Amino acid sequence: xxxxxxxxxxxxxxxxxxxxxxxxxxxxxxxxxxxxxxxxxxxxxxxxxxxxxxxxxxxxxxxxxxxxxxxxxxxxxxxxxxxxxxxxxxxxxxxxxxxxxxxxxxxxxxxxxxxxxxxxxxxxxxxxxxxxxxxxxxxxxxxxxxxxxxxxxxxxxxxxxxxxxxxxxxxxxxxxxxxxxxxxxxxxxxxxxxxxxxxxxxxxxxxxxxxxxxxxxxxxxxxxxxxxxxxxxxxxxxxxxxxxxxxxxxxxxxxxxxxxxxxxxxxxxxxxxxxxxxxxxxxxxxxxxxxxxxxxxxxxxxxxxxxxxxxxxxxxxxxxxxxxxxxxxxxxxxxxxxxxxxxxxxxxxxxxxxxxxxxxxxxxxxxxxxxxxxxxxxxxxxxxxxxxxxxxxxxxxxxxxxxxxxxxxxxxxxxxxxxxxxxxxxxxxxxxxxxxxxxxxxxxxxxxxxxxxxxxxxxxxxxxxxxxxxxxxxxxxxxx
Length: 480
What we know:
alpha/beta; Rossmann fold; seven-stranded mixed β-sheet; 18 strands
């Protein structure tokens, strides 16, 4: 079966986003599919698919190999090489009394949401039994909502759970940040959400305030886009709810337009707009990478030097640090995969450190966070397939994905976890929480992965949310 799609123009720029972002992309994906007429022809394909006798299990993999989000997918080729060499993928998997061959079919979204819809439909047309996807809402939400419409199991990662959940019809986020509504039937995901950003950043603020006598004024650099507006609406209330004795005073720099080039007014606000007319000693953001590079350079030139910068959405990859050079020193961000963890592959037993070292030894440059989450997509797929009687029964595979509970490259993941601690519990069935750590970029020291020296490396400086990952760096002020 083949359908020609004439997608609507893609909106959105790479980022993390929140509920509003997820809803917009979810509705956009639905509009694209409806316009193509695909829903009418593919809605009942899954029921017929369960009767197939194929000896091959097809797994579609959708990621942004090119375009603005390509840094996320940079390690994809290496990761897939490792996955294909592992036992299940190289030798096959026995389900019931039948041995199946596993085939991975790759698709590039070009970092565009409308292309993500199109390539997902192509994978469904080719008979994929399940689809896995990674790397920011522009990719994961269109893929996930397309799969939900077509009744195909899908597993996503590297998207805040609030954005992902909000992309589905009938699902929403309460003012308290809880999952509301029925949610998806064919989808699962693993990552974390806004409370985890707060739980990673605020402990670092506290320690720097104790060390430097930094004030509690927090500069917020949030743009007037879906990402920035979502952070503006949720981040400060989340911090105040989680840390009611913190006494933080949030100063909004203004809802600026993406790709603004002059940040002088915002910088002046941060220098004098804090409580008591004091500068904001703490800094948080969720901008586009080029916007942060422009802002941070101008801030240094205009003598705005916050004592700690904790950034979201930017400074995730070595390329970000190299772009800023010396101004990258001691900028802190979140890390969802690090080779300094004690975790190992559920497929081969390879440690996280050996995995990253092999990547570097193969000439791919420094390890990047997204390599771990991409690897875990396929670990989880195997865990689900081992639980079903028929891998071609898409509903059974979807249900199995929503109940996986295992340890792998990204640590322990439980898709139906119950816990009194909301940071550990699943917000809804089918959502597993990665526990991030705080890292800082530091120059010139020998990296602990493969004993190589790089101009800039990430070092774990706070493990408040994940004590299993050891500290190997000292939290220091971004500016003295």
